[in-house]
Amino acid sequence: MRDIVFTRASGWIPNVIREDGELRLMLGAGADANHAPRTFTFPIGEAHLAVIREDLARHLLLWSAVLPLCDAAGTRGRLDEDAAVALLDPILLSAPADVDALFRHIRWDRGQLITHGADIDLLERGQVCAAMRTATETPNGKRAQEYDANRRRAERGTVLGPLDAALLKYTGQYVHGATVPRRMPDAVDPALLTEVMRVIATAEQACAGMRIGRDPRRGKRATDKRDWERMAATVDAAVRRAHPGLVDDAVRTVSFLMCSEAADRSRSAPMEDDEEPDGTFGEGARKTALSFTDDKGVEKEWRADGPRTATAVFWEFVEDRSAGDNEVFTIEDEKRGEGIQLHFYADSIARITTVRQGEGGADPEYRVEYSLVDGIGGYRTLVSAFVRGGCAALDQHGSWIADAAEFERARRRRDAD
Length: 417
Description:
The protein is an alpha+beta fold. Helix content is about 45%, strand content about 15%. The chain has 16 helices and 10 strands. The protein has helices at about 45-55, 55-75, 80-85, 90-95, 95-105, 110-115, 120-125, 130, 140-155, 160-170, 190-205, 225-240, 250-270, 310-320, 375-390, 405-415; strands spanning about 1-5, 15-20, 20-30, 35-45, 290-295, 300-305, 330-335, 340-345, 350-355, 365-370. The strands form 2 sheets. Strands 6-5-7-8-9-10 form a 6-stranded antiparallel sheet. A 4-stranded antiparallel sheet has the order 1-2-3-4. A hairpin with a 5-residue loop joins β3 (about 20-30) and β4. The N and C termini lie far apart (about 75 Å).
């Protein structure tokens, strides 16, 4: 038979129960092998119950000291009841100085005390009883998260100034640096908001006109890594130059915000059309019909009288089909007897031109030439040039090598650099 004798408003603070006539402290901590919460109990006396009822600070200090014993029990072990009972008198019935001395020699959970309002500076100085004068029954989990984040920064030698902290709070990265940044002006102290917006304006001006393109080779939501790095470096340099007092964490969160927003704009827009007229090729050189294929034999047709441009349709085809085992894509103009083959796994491309049509059962004769490609931007340039002007239009883009062995040596030299 189990009856609740005393409980506080916060459900996680340990309760006092009476079980088979015996007073016991009951707390939830950790999880079992199935990830369900574990519950532990151990015996207490009437004198302990009286303190727990009247003194929130002592109640929380006891909880903080018992939690490491629960952790030690793991997913299936038993709580060391003797060790838990041994904490009762020293924490609940001793003088504050003796409690402080005890906490200098035992393991205890600092986070729970901070969550419930303990003074962090006093805790750091070992004055745990004095620190608990500001304790509250209602928890504030964000407070402990911020403490942990600052502790991790301190471990790597980073100390935030007021503006640094305000910038991290503005982007929502004060607690979790891996969080996707967003604009949260309400999270910033109003006295610092104008200064924060001045830093943001510096970043916006630095990357005005820059964009982060899509990278269809890596799926529907992937963006160009080089574009991202280029924008981040530009913003980083401008912010450091205009605001030299900022720490690295603050500068990075601003550049991360600019890049994330640019990447989101790219992801939400239709696939880019690379076929900007440049006057290099006449309309007669443009393709009227093309077929796109991947390494799995899937084919897609494009015709000039359709609603979309060839480059947009091709890159959407790549976006839909590209995978770790599907990294070779071909564009063929059957009418003109030419095509290109993109090798995403090797950052290379081949252009294929029909030299002689097969007659009398003979196989056609082809000329195959290879070139190295510099990232997704290079691929886009080559695809656009081919669509506008065929294989001849590719002469001005890169060096073309007819000998496959020579090209492979060139590719290995590049990869070794």
